[in-house]
Write a structure and sequence with these properties.
Blueprint: E1 2-7, E2 13-18, H1 24-36, H2 41-47, H3 54-66, E3 70-75, E4 78-83, H4 87-103, H5 107-118, H6 124-139
Antiparallel strand pairs: 1-2, 3-4
Helix pairs in contact: 1-3, 2-3
Amino acid sequence: MVEIVGLSREKEAVKVNALPALSRREREVMDIVHELGNATAAQIQENMADPPTYSAVRSTLRILMEKGHLVSERDGARYVYSPTMPAQRARRSAMRHVLRTFFRGSVEGAVATLLELRGDELTPEEHARITEMIEQAAKEGR
């Protein structure tokens, strides 16, 4: 794991644990592994939208292990791959990166963009849950 020092909105140094960035293909593999919980190279290949060769999948898995995103365990003649961090933690890490990179740490800017893109698609139930989350965060001082 690589440790990066970033700046918060208040310009204070903040340590952020981050794994190396992923290519589009690596992200696709990680999404599949997170969805399945763990997977073999063959399972990953059959779940890919435009699957490369089996050896290309194995090569991608090796790279993801080197980057620290996956671990493997031998199961007979095959290897089973698992993510090194739970999906929820990976989502938070990715969101922190997006906030820093594209919104200068502004949650308001990110939410405004999401609403601009998808606001008209929100169901009344989703709108109510989001409103409730915002109110709860305000009560907790977040």
